[in-house]
Amino acid sequence: MTNPTPESDADLLRKIKAGDTQATRLLVDQYLDRIVNYGTRMLGDRSEAEDVAQEAFLRLWRNLDKWRAEAPVIHWLQRVTYNLCIDRLRKKKPVNIDDIAEPEDPFENPAKSLHEVQVSTAVNAAIQKLPERQRAAIVFAHQEGLSNIETAEIMEISVEAVESLLSRGRRGLRDLLQDLRPELQGDV
Question: d(Cα 26, Cα 72) in Å, to the nearest integer?
C-alpha cells in the first residue's frame, strides 16, 4: 500500500469541494479499511467501528472548508477516530472479556495455522484489557505502523508521553500474557 502525500490529499479534497463524487469515492476507498480496522482494534467490535468510521468521514465532509493541508488526511481521520473511540469507551459499561466476539481473521488465509490464530486472539484480547490511552498508543505504533511522532500528533501528547504509554502498554501486555506464554510459544 502506498501512502498518499499531503499534496494528493489536498488535490482530492479540492475536487471533493468542487463536487467531484469520484474523488469522494477515491478518498473513502483509500482510507476506510484503515479507519475501520483501527476502530475495531480500539473498540473490539467491527460494527461499532464502522459506525465510528462513518462519523469520522462525515466530520471530514463537514469541515472541508476549514481543511489545512498541513498533514495527510489519514492523520486527521485517525485523530477523529481516536477521539470517537475514546468517547464510546468511556460511555460503555465494563465488558466481560469472555463476551467480546472473537476477531475476524483479516488474512482469510486457510493455510494460516491454528496456533497463529490463537496467538493473535490472545494478544488482541490482552490489548482490549489495557487502559484506553495505552491501547491507543500500542495500536497506532505497532498495528498501524505509525512513528512515535505521528502517534503523538494524533493523540495530541508529547513524544515522551507516547514512549511512556508504549512502555507501560508493553509491560501490561507482557503481564497479561505471562500465564499464556507456554501455550503461545507452542510447537509450531
Answer: 15
Rounded to a whole number of angstroms, the CA Rg of the chain reads 18
CATH topology of domain 1-92: Rna Polymerase Sigma Factor; Chain: A (1.10.1740)
Closest CA to 89 of 45, 33, 126: 45
Is pTM beyond 0.85? Reply is no
Task: Sort residue 109 into left (φ over 0), alpha (ψ -120 to 50) or beta.
Answer: beta
**In this structure, CATH architecture of domain 100-188:** Orthogonal Bundle (1.10)
Looking at this protein, which amino acid is placed at residue 104? E
The confidence band for 93, taking pLDDT boundaries of 50, 70 and 90, is low
DSSP character at residue 5:
P
